[in-house]
Write a sequence for this structure.
């Protein structure tokens, strides 16, 4: 008898024993109440706990709205549907789900004929009839969902079916309504599941790529990492940031400590590994693997391992470059060569600026260029660009737009509105005798002539780093129900609109030129470091034995830049000092608590400001004494700073420093860095961060420039900051022109007089 047959008989015997025990205990009520499912558990690892708890969460329903955050929903005969979306990631199972609705039906509705239907992924879950007692009063009802119909991405749809008359009603009648209150909530009972140790699943479960929630991904070292280990961690952090995209990501750092019940990343060498990972075998080459975390039923560890720190860097680069082509629990890396350096301004998230770009290359998902409904939702396209595009004389962008639409019925008014960053650019009539149209347009990216004279609005002469193009199709709708004698039934047909994917936009012909310092370019798009998407011309300075909070700030910055440009920092350099020419022709990122942390740098401007702010803050804390005479501090503490200035080692290069005053200051800075929209208000050359306050930005230090302009553009740019000189120059040009005309005319007259 072979092994397979013996195993089959053993399992069969075990099953019969279990069934016998159950059948023999059916008469015992106590046993029936305690009966639980039986699991066949893995032999490895033996440190797993036995039970994963079920967690119940009640969340406001409106937070799942597909329309964004809203205060109230009013459903009518025309707007009779609303949708909400929730998610179920691969490492989590939703065992029970329900929605509790609190709604108020119109007192004019006819009971029983009016109802609120609840759907999950297109399947009706329950129909809630409106009764006579409910009219005009708030109603509370709970609808349980069928767990078998729950998928990774789930849509809850509320459909209002209302009637206010038995004869010839109109869907547009103002008496036809039902409101849903913001106190409605979604209840999910979730349980974490044990995923297989399979690298083909990544970035799951380490990075959230499904729901809008931010990711927290702890990073573990055996002790304070050296430069190469920090460099490897920076590569992995930027890779995770690329996967998280706009959602935000945070990297708390642990030294020889296991995060509690979380998926995390661990950097391990044969001679340096956390105590709780001593069971991992030594390796003979760079490896990337997924293993079960100790003392937890579901958490996983993404292990970056090697014989030494050089192997860790190789493994990190391999993960960043080949993550879509790996599978299994462990991959050994052999013969991997680093990718060639990226070219300037070729970040995948940025639109190419040297050629026409079709809309199908801008769209991020299928169906983005299509919208359907009585009033179709606006079609939106995000356009990210290098933030140093210089636009003064050539301030027009060419747009060749083609679109199709449902013909307006009954020759009702309809139009398509084109908006850029919520500002109306142009509107076009949707003609009833055709179903398509196209136009070529030029739109200016300048904020108005007045801004040309404002010294603080230099970014207005640059193309915005983040732009949103909106195409809003509006249809007029008039509905008549007729009369009792001549009743008309009306069937509302949804409209469909489409932007042709062959439409193009052209940003070519612009120069790369910017005046610095300008922290807004850094916080919005990681510039100037992101000029080269792999950060091949970036030097990160962070001291040896850096505390975990400072390393966390560095990783959060790398993750943020990766998310902004769509590419991991595979070529970034990390060092603890300026030495041996490592800062020449490099943009420098500095992470520290004080300038004494780093050698080769003079006292940093942010540190000077921090010292001043510390002194001021000591007098601003509200203090009082309790009954025992102890002093109570009633304000939050902590302060952080960010600054930019020209590198002393290369002309036109930048130094950006991020400094937090201890753990409290680092907490403030890290909280800002993980939120994609939280630093967009920062500008100038220095920014100060306090708890629960808007960052303060200042202009300090001399200006410098990056990029290049032709000489005539340089002259024009120089005159923009000197309005009086510009006026004088204009008058001089006018005088020269008038003098030339006068001389030409005088010469013509003299010539004619000589002939006569």
């Amino acid at each position: 008898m072979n092994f397979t047959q013996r195993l089959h008989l053993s399992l069969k015997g075990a099953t019969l024993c279990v069934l016998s025990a159950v059948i023999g205990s059916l008469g015992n009520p106590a046993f029936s109440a305690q009966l639980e499912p039986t699991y066949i558990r893995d032999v490895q690892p033996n440190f797993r706990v036995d039970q994963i708890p079920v967690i119940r969460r009640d969340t406001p329903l409106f937070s799942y709205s597909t329309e964004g955050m809203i205060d109230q929903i009013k459903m009518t005969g025309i707007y009779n549907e609303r949708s909400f979306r929730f998610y179920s990631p691969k490492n989590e199972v939703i065992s029970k789900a329900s929605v509790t609705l609190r709604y108020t039906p119109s007192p004019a509705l006819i009971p029983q004929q009016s109802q609120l239907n609840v759907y999950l992924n297109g399947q009706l879950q329950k129909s809630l009839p409106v009764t006579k007692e409910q009219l005009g009063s708030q109603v509370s009802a709970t609808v349980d969902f069928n767990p078998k119909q729950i998928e990774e991405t789930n849509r809850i749809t509320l459909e209002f079916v209302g009637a206010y008359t038995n004869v010839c009603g109109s869907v547009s009648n103002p008496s036809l309504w039902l409101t849903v209150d913001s106190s409605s909530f979604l209840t999910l009972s979730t349980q974490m599941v044990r995923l297989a140790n399979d690298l083909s699943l990544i970035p799951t479960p380490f990075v959230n790529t499904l729901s809008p929630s931010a990711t927290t991904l702890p990073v573990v070292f055996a002790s304070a990492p050296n430069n190469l280990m920090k460099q490897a961690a920076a590569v992995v952090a930027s890779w995770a940031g690329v996967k998280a995209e706009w959602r935000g990501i945070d990297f708390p750092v642990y030294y020889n400590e296991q995060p509690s019940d979380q998926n995390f990343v661990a950097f391990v060498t044969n001679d340096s590994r956390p105590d709780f990972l001593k069971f991992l075998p030594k390796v003979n080459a760079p490896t990337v693997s997924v293993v079960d975390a100790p003392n937890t039923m579901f958490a996983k560890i993404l292990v970056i391992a090697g014989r030494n720190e050089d192997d860790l860097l190789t493994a990190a680069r391999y993960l960043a470059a080949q993550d879509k082509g790996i599978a299994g629990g462990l991959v050994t890396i052999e013969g991997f060569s680093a990718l060639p350096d990226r070219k300037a301004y070729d970040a995948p998230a940025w639109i190419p600026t040297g050629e026409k770009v079709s809309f199908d290359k801008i769209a991020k998902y299928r169906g983005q260029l299509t919208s359907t409904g009585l009033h179709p939702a606006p079609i939106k396209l995000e356009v990210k660009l290098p933030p140093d595009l210089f636009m003064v004389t050539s301030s027009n962008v060419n747009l060749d737009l083609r679109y199709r639409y449902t013909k307006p019925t009954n020759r009702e008014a309809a139009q398509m509105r084109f908006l850029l960053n919520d500002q109306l650019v142009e509107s076009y009539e949707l003609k009833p005798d055709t179903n398509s149209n196209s136009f070529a347009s030029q739109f200016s990216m300048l904020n108005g002539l007045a801004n040309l004279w404002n010294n603080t609005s230099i970014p207005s002469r640059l193309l915005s780093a983040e732009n949103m193009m909106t195409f809003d199709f509006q249809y007029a709708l008039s509905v008549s129900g007729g009369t009792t004698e001549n009743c008309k039934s009306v069937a509302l047909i949804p409209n469909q609109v489409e932007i042709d994917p062959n439409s193009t936009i052209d940003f070519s012909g612009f120069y790369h030129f910017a005046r610095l310092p300008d922290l807004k370019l850094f916080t919005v798009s990681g510039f100037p470091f992101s000029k080269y998407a792999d950060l091949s011309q970036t030097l990160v300075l962070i001291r040896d034995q850096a505390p975990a909070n400072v390393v966390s700030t560095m990783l959060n910055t790398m993750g943020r830049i990766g998310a902004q440009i769509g590419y991991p920092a595979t070529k970034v350099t990390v060092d603890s000092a300026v030495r041996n020419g490592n800062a020449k022709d490099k943009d420098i990122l500095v992470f520290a608590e004080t300038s004494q942390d780093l050698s080769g740098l003079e006292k940093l401007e942010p540190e000077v400001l921090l010292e001043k702010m510390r002194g001021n803050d000591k007098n601003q804390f509200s203090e009082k004494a309790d009954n025992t005479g102890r002093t109570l501090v009633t304000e939050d503490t902590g302060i952080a700073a960010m600054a930019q200035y020209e590198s002393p080692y290369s002309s036109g290069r930048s130094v950006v420093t991020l400094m937090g005053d201890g753990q409290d200051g680092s907490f403030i800075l890290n909280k800002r860095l993980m939120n994609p929209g939280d630093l967009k208000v920062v500008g100038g050359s220095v920014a100060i961060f306090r708890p629960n306050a808007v960052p303060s930005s200042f202009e300090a230090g001399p200006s410098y420039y990056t990029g290049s302009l032709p000489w005539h553009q340089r002259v024009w740019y120089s005159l923009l900051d000197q309005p009086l000189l510009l006026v004088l120059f204009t008058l001089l040009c006018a005088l020269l022109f008038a003098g030339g005309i006068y001389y030409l005319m005088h010469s013509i007259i003299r010539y004619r007089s000589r002939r006569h």
Observations:
- The chain is about 20% helix and 30% strand.
